[in-house]
Amino acid sequence: MKKTFLLLTIVAVLAMPMAAMAAAEFSLGGFIKLDAFWDSTQEGKNMNTVIARNNLVNGQHGRLHFTSQGSRFNFTIKGPKLWGATTTGFLEMDFDSQEEGLSAATGARGIAAIGASNSYTPRLRHAMFRLNWPETELLFGQYWSMFSQWYPELLQDGPFQITGTPTARLPQIRFTQKFAGSWQVAALIGDPNGITNGQSYNANIDRTGGESAETPQVQGQVQFAQDLYGKAAWYGVPTPFTAQVTAGWQRAFIAEQNAQAFRATGLDTFNAIANGAARHKAVDPWVVMGSLFIPVIPTHSANLAGTASIQTSWWIGQGVEAFGWIGFGSQVYRFVGAGNVGGAVSNVFDVDLMARFGGQIEGQYYFNNQWFVTGAWGMSRAFGVGAFQSGGLGIGNYTRQNWFAAASDPVNYHNEFDLALWYRPIKAFKFGLQYAYNRTNYFQNLRSGTAATPSNVTNLGEAHRVEFVGLFFF
Asked: What digits encode the pLDDT tens for the residues 254-310?
């Protein structure tokens, strides 16, 4: 009898978590991706790095690369009802935590090449759950930024990241409300990003990452979406005319340092700081973006043959990397300098956030329900930058406050063009072939050769890519 009772107890204990899990339904999804490409400059897999200058030998020979690093898998969890709302969860991972690329300054490889015997590192992409009522949604967890909805349907992972069309994710709490049939408003508070993109000029006082912020990142969005005259495809889904305005802001702190000591050399007009000590200065990264999706040749059914669309997004802001946008490591600061103080080079900061604008436009046409073509162009440009001086690549001599720093080899302008042909014979398989052209214009020129016999001076880097992908969705 005791053995029977013990057995029943064990079965009951083991059954309790199973009973709890029975209230949820799990489904597995994702895709396996083969990515094969030839680059003229050994550009990073995601094309999210600036292009090495054309006169850098190390960066100007081609490479052929095959990878399955962009494969993903996810779990969708359908939970029980709560407060009258349906509940769902979503967990997604890929293997893209390391990106191969080149140093724009030297053309040298920044991360060792990843091979079949050197495993890719798993990365958490999304981990969130949400409560949905008929016109209201409440989301908790790591998910897309509000700026991330309209990235073009291209072959590379994270298309147009470097131009300011982001694929950013952040831990957040988001509220979305639909009203009047076609309108939607949303707001989120989330994890603040650091404004230095991992760069630290003084480890003692220049805190990087989210620790440099005293506010959450806040984002807001207004959207109008209505079937005015038919729909067109967006990632294969019939989508109506849509207009969005999205904005974001946060406050962060960064160090200004050694300015008075440098000022004593007579080379600058930086703000004086008592006794040459550093101080923390509040800065306010912000960005505003407008987006449109326009069905050009619409459909009134699920048949996409002969349809066409245009999607475009344009943004303006300062310190935009603070929003998790993949961008230029030098684009955050407007005034950075260095000088010879007491026989040693000393960093000085009179910090301001660089202002930039950019965006992208995509056109897409479906020949039939299996074959379609995507053409896209994106760009990012600095503005409001004063005169610039450099003694070559690296630190120059600065005589005025509005002279732009060369310490990080800042980028003035970057743009990318892609033309992709897609074939999706059935829902589970998708194949693509693409040509891409990337161009980076730096503020400063870099000469090759020697100081005595300089040659091939340029501020331009260009790259070409031919790429093939095959995807199996499950």
From this structure: 655 544 444 444 434 333 333 344 556 777 889 999 999 999 999 999 999 999 999
Place of tokens 């053409």: 375
Q: How many CB atoms lie within 10 A of CB 261?
A: 17
Please check whether residue 77 is in contact with residue 191, taking contact to mean a CB–CB distance below 8 angstroms: no
**What is the Cα–Cα distance from 220 to 149, expressed in whole angstroms?**
14
- DSSP element (H, E) containing 282: strand 279-283
Pairing of strands 25-39, 63-67: antiparallel
pTM of the model: 0.81
Q: What is the largest CA-CA distance in the chain?
A: 98
Per-residue pLDDT tens for 129-154? 999 999 999 999 999 999 999 989 99
Rounded to an integer, what distance in angstroms lies between the CA atom of residue 29 and that of residue 49? 30
Model confidence pLDDT, tens digit, residues 76-94? 999 999 999 999 999 999 8
**Beta-strand (E) ranges in 148-216?**
169-179, 183-190
Residue 179 has pLDDT above 80, yes or no: yes
Query: How far is Cα 114 from Cα 70, in angstroms, rounded to an integer?
Result: 13
Choose which CATH entry (2.60.40, 2.30.29, 3.30.420, 2.40.160) describes domain 123-473: 2.40.160
Between CA 348 and CA 357, with CA 353 as vertex, the angle to 5 degrees is 145
Helix ranges (DSSP H) in 202-348: 259-263
Q: At a CB cut-off of 8 Å and minimum separation 6, what does 172 contact?
A: 139, 140, 141, 142, 143, 188, 189, 190, 191
- Which SS3 state, helix, strand or coil, does residue 122 take? coil
Q: Given 3-state DSSP classes, what are the helix, strand and coil percentages for the chain, each rounded to the nearest 5?
A: 10, 50, 40
| Among the listed residues 93, 107, 96, the one whose alpha carbon sits nearest the alpha carbon of residue 49 | 107
- The two tokens of residue 373 are 């073509």
How far, in Å, are 11, 44, 128 from residue 22 at the CA level? Answer: 16, 44, 20
Lowest mean pLDDT among 251-255, 348-352, 353-357, 401-405: 401-405
- Domain spans of the chain, in order of start: 123-473
| Element at 314 (helix H, strand E) | strand 308-318
In this prediction, residue 233 carries a pLDDT of 97
Percentage of the chain lying above the pLDDT 90 cut: 46
